[in-house]
Every structure is written in C-alpha cells, then in structure tokens.
## 1
Amino acid sequence: MLTIILSILFALLPVSIMAGAKGDTMLKDIHWLGHDTFKIVGEKVIYTDPFKIKKKDIADIILITHEHYDHCSPADVKAVQGPNTVIVAPSDCAKKLSGTVKVVKPGDKITVEGVEIEAVPSYNTNKQFHPKMNGWVGYIFTSKGRRIYLAGDTDYIPEMKTFKADIALLPVSGTYVMTADEAVKAALDIKPKLAIPMHYGSIVGSENDAKVFSDGLKGKIEVTILREE
C-alpha cells in the first residue's frame, strides 16, 4: 500500500522539480568562470574561450570561438594550457596561439581525445561585430554522453533550428550578441534539456539579462543561472 501511495505522489510531482533534479546532475560538471568561459569536466577537461583566468589549471581541450580579445586571449590560454592540451579554433585565432592547434570552420566535425566536436555557424544578423564571412564558430561537443552547445558571439540565426543539444550555453546581453528575448527564441528552437545564460556581467550586460532569459523560458525549458566561480 505504501509503495502505491509513493508511486502516486511521485507521479504528481511538478515537472519543474523533476527537471531540476536532472539539471542538478548535469550542472555538477559545468563551472562558469565568467563571460563565455566555462570549465566542463567529463572524460576530458574542456575550457571554452578562456578569459580573465584566476587559477592555473590544465585543460585537455580548449575551444575558442573567434579572435576577439575576450575570447581568444593568448595569456589566458597559457594559464590553462599543458604540454598535451589541444586547442580548437578558427584560422585567425591559430595565428596568435602556440602548441597543438586544430583549425576549424563552420560545418567541420572532428574528434579530439575521443571527444566529438562540431563547429557550427556563429554570426551577427543585424550588426557588424561578428560577420558571417569571418567563419567564426560555436561548438556542439559531447561530454559524458551529453551534447553541449556553446553558442559563441552570435545573434539568433536560422541554423539554430537544426542544432540538437542537451545543454545550451547562450549569450543574453545584447549589443554585440543576441538579446535575452532573442536568446529565448534560440532556446525554443534548440530545445535543450537545460539552458545556461552567458556573456553578461563582464564587458556588457548584467544578471538582469540572465533573469529576463530565465523568465522567458519558465515552464518551457529549464534554465539555471550559474554563479561565477
């Protein structure tokens, strides 16, 4: 009888609570270090767009989306680069970096240290800070069986309808990238299990942008606003 009662109660749990439990499981591996910099721990340690690194570390893989100083910072790359670290980056970034660099462009799919990595388009549609012709990228990569989408500096673009990811890391601050409201549309196209806002609180944007993003997806897609580590 007790088993039946517990089963009924579990079935009645709000979807948001159940989704939150899943989110917690995924979140323990994702550390936001500010701006677009994440440390993701899985089969390999992956850093994205290292910028203003506070602690020395060693990454297995570093993913760089484009050559702007707050995304491709040679000094910050060195802070997390070891002798065996593999950097994945567009060609204009590679010229600034040393060590093992694999050059990618939108549409490329590569495997690095057993990690599947897809370079996807990342560009502006209504501003000129990140022209499509530059061939800059976002990434969809696999960690612990989960597909993680790092958008890079992008607007809400048509290609997002084709992206499939379990976790989406999306810029929300406007000015140079999509606004929080546009990021909501992006998330609804991608349909991840979990969305995490980024690109605010450092150069442009504030936590209010992250909250607007979260509120816009309430009841649709789980959103977690990470604290900067």
## 2
Amino acid sequence: MTAMGDDPGLLARKYSAFDGREDVAVSHLALFPMPNVEDIRAHLLAQDVLWVDGGSVANLLALWRLHGVDTVMREAWEAGVVLSGSSAGSLCWHVGGATDSFGPQLRPVTDGLGLLPYANGVHYDSEEQRRPLIQRLVADGTLPTAYCTDDGVGLHYVGTELVEAVSEIEGKGAYVVERAPGEGAVERRIEARLLTES
C-alpha cells in the first residue's frame, strides 16, 4: 500500500472486497507513520500472496529499502510466496521501466528490485508517452528487454520465465520490446488469454 502513502480509503476498499470470504484472510503492511506490524519479515513470509498497489514506484522502493522490505521481498519470492500487483506494484519486481513518480513527464526508473531481469512497461495503451519512452530506453540500453501491458492485462511469470499474459478485457494485449542492433527497438505483441468468471 505504501506506493499510495498507505491511503486508508484504499486500504478499506481492499478489505471490503474480500468481506465475507471465509477462504481469504486479508492483512496489510503499512509504513506510515511507522510499521503497523512488529516484525515485518515474519508478517510478509507468513503470506501466500503479496499484492502491491499502484502509485509512486520511486517512493515505494525508497521506503522499502529504508525499512528492509526489499530484502524480505526477495526472501519471500525465493520461498514461493506469490508476488503480484498493478502499475507500480508490477514495475517494482522488475529492473525498471517508465514512471511518473517524479512529475508529469515520464522518466526512467532503473533501480527496481530486479527479481525479474526485465524492464516493465505499464499503462502501455492508455498513456501516450509510455510506448515511445520504453522503446527508446530499450534501444539505447538504459533498460533491458521489456515486457509491457495494456491496462487490464497481467503478466504471469514462474521464476523468471514469462509463462503467459492474461487479460480481463477482450482485445487487450502484452508486448515484448527488445533491442535490435541497427534497428533500435523491436516490439512484438503477445496475445493475452482472456480471463472468464467461473
């Protein structure tokens, strides 16, 4: 939740989304104004799934490093805890990408956790600055190969291997952007499997 400053309204909506579900136990880690749990490591390692919301990836990473959350996240990942999230909560697991954490003009962020050895391009279809910036950053070597997603699309990795892209919206997709000597960056679409309610 820290990417949005541990917004209490957002936190309440997350809890209410699972209200009445006996098969889901929801908890959270907040870092404002101080950690809400006594032992951050024990709390995070006790979870099956960790979800990180969007917001400022730069602030998120800075606070995680300040409180040692970054090293615990690696430990959780290596222990098999499912790491997930959207926007900043997707970008943080990668090497880097494009962010508006520093202002309205997108800038590169290159100090993600690097659990996944790729760049990540979020909001690829909804914010017009994102696609050209990711392509330029991959072309000039600032970022490695990038996996990018339209809004509503998720990337499913097992370990560091991309297994598939999934979408909650028909027609949306994912993309891989790779550096091509003499050509700059080359983009290839990855068709996303449409998720259906069961």
## 3
Amino acid sequence: MANQETQYNVANQVAIITLNRPDKLNAWTAVMEQEVRAAMYEAEADANVRVIILTGAGRGFCAGADMSLLGNIAQQGLPGNGSNFLRNSGNGERANVRPDFQKKYSYFPSLQKPVIAAVNGPAVGLGFIISLYCDMRFASDGARFGTAFAKRGLIAEYGLAWLLPRLIGPANALDMLFSARLVDANEALRMGLVNRVLPQDSFMEGVIAYANELANNVSPRSLRVIKEQVYNAMFQTLGEAFETAEQEMVKSLQCEDFKEGVAHFVEKRAPVFTGR
C-alpha cells in the first residue's frame, strides 16, 4: 500500500524518508508515526542502504503533533487511562536491544545505520524530539527549534528530560524547556544542538553529500558497531566501555572490512567495503 504521509526513496546507498504533509508543516499524526517506523526498519534491512536521512517536505521539518489531535484530547480527554496513547506502537521487542531504546520514539538509536535529521525548517514540540533521536542534526539556515510544551500546559515528553541535557547541557536544556522559545540555527549550532548549518538554497545537496561520504568511504560494519558502542556507553562506566571496546576490537581485527581498510590505504584506491 502506498504511503499516505511520507515518501521513501533510495539512491546511492542513502535512504531519504520525507515527512509529507507540507500544507500542515508536516505536523505529526498516528499514520505518519507508523509510516516512519516502517520506513526506518525497511532501510535498516536493505543491504543497499548504508545511511538514512529524515527530512520534511516544503518549508518545515515537523511542527509537532497535529493540533486537531491535541484539540480533541483537550476537549474530550484521553481514551481509557491514556496509557495506550503514550506507549510504544511498534512491532514488539527487538532482539539484543536495551529496553531504553525500545520506547515509542527512542528506537532510532537501536537502528544499525546512521540516521541524519535534515532539519529544513521549524522543528517544534514532538518534531523537535524526533530530530533529537536522530544520530546527527544538520540544519538549514532557516531552521528553528522549540520545545513548545510549557506553553501548552505539558511537560518534557518521551524521554526529552534525559536526552536534551546530554546534548546541550542542563542549563541550556532548562532554558529551552522553561521558555519554550524558538532557537534559530546559529544559536542551535553554538549550543551543540546541531552538527552543521547549511544554506537553505543548497541544503539537501549538502546533507546528501555528507551521507554519500559515509556510505562510500567508511566501513558499514564500523558504523554499526560504533553507534552501538556510543549509545550503550551512556549507561556504562568507563571500565565497562573499555571492556566492550577491547572485545569489539578483537572482532574488528578479524573482519573483512579491516582487511579492506588496510588494503585500500596501501594501494591508494577507493575502498570497497562489504560491511562484513
């Protein structure tokens, strides 16, 4: 069945998932949630995909939860006790993934490939959270970021109170959460909220160029293991992270990509990594 609220395209080993409700600034819906999750898992399973980009159609990334849904809840209340509305709507537990990365939106870190948020415009509320669960954020110079929750009588949703301080520090996180003000791309860069700011008129070209660099010039196996290391290390001591690195290094020294990594450097040619 064709997607209703997203687009999915693959080219040059890069999958681009596009939120596609431009007339609503890509406001998030239950349909969009299901389609994004399905597309992420499809890209993860596709051997022809090495990097994933998530972006928005038109002039926005995602303006947050669709206001019609919030309006209905404000007037009628949550169905039942509200727990089902907030819980994971995914496809069950994933093997060998810590429970922290199996919640409603926190599954992005469990994906075995890099996920880049290409924030082309406003990323507010739930849209802001979605961008944070991506591994990196590239912003156009017209992007804006905001939490919105305190201005709606809400709180820091879906693990944001854990995630945001780790990215930009407690003081900056509390500023954004308390004030719910919009932060422009340059301030976001100074905070460490985004990795790069690119001109709007060449924005996607710049993001895709970076994704192509990852897809073609580094080991997919290394990307997979390093991503798992970094996210799991958030819950480990230094000693535990050190022991994990020792174990993974032994495996790396025996893999095909290590042999290719040495060979292409010595032979002064482009790498041909297999991910094995």
